[in-house]
Specification:
Layout: H1 11-14, H2 16-27, H3 31-53, H4 56-74, H5 86-105, H6 130-148, H7 152-163, H8 168-175, H9 179-196, H10 213-217
Helix pairs in contact: 2-3, 3-4, 3-5, 4-5, 5-8, 7-9, 8-9
Length: 219
């Protein structure tokens, strides 16, 4: 069983080939290997789905559906591994499941989102005081709300780029489009976010992965 990593880290990034090896074991009838895959990928899948649909309870159900779909796909006779990382293939499955959920709901995600991680994955740089911690949580909520209001294709591109740290090529594989199309969607999304988050720009807030809102969203 792969060892667990700290919250927010994606183990598949560090061991890109191991997940596909586990898939081969799943196809050979080793259900323990599938449990290992779930343990490795459930956190990024859950966060990705949550940020797309904006409801934590629904996200849990959709994440379970993602792994059920993945399991069924792995056992299909014509299943073939892709040239991309397993996580890229799994995000394709997750996006389809999330879109099905949104179609059933027939509405956009709520404007104010409950954040799965404290501060929406954001923390002030350095040692945070109580006031800074509250400010970071408020900032995280504002960012989550702004991302939730993006059109679905732009929202997906931003989540995969900024939260999951996928390359444009991998995002293109998830979204079944060209890397140029991903680049255009990210450009439009960041322009919209820059306008909606302009009130946050005077004070840069650093994300856990070193992403600065001021650096990324200013002109």
């Amino acid at each position: 069983m792969p060892k667990r990593m700290d919250k927010g880290e994606t183990q598949a990034r560090l061991e890109p080939d191991q997940s596909w090896a586990l898939v081969e074991r799943v196809r050979a009838g080793d259900d323990g290997a599938f449990e290992a895959l779930m343990d490795r990928h459930k956190h990024p899948v859950m966060n990705f789905v949550f940020r797309l649909i904006g409801d934590a309870t629904e996200a849990e159900d959709v994440a379970q559906d993602v792994f059920a779909r993945a399991y069924r796909s792995m056992h299909k006779p014509g299943f073939r591994r892709t040239t991309a990382e397993f996580s890229t293939w799994l995000f394709q499955v997750a996006r389809n499941a999330a879109l099905d959920c949104l179609r059933r709901r027939k509405r956009r995600p709520a404007e104010s989102l409950a954040i799965l991680e404290d501060g929406g994955g954001l923390l002030p740089s350095g040692q945070a005081t109580a006031a800074e911690d509250v400010a970071a949580r408020e900032t995280g909520a504002a960012i989550a709300a702004a991302v939730a209001l993006l059109p679905e294709d732009q929202r997906t591109a931003v989540i995969l780029s900024e939260y999951e740290r996928l390359s444009d090529a991998d995002i293109a594989a998830v979204m079944h489009c060209s890397a140029k199309s991903v680049e255009a969607r990210l450009y439009r999304a960041r322009r919209l976010l820059r306008e909606r988050l302009r009130h946050l720009l005077p004070r840069p807030i650093e994300c856990r992965e070193g992403f600065s809102l001021r650096r990324r969203y200013t002109v």
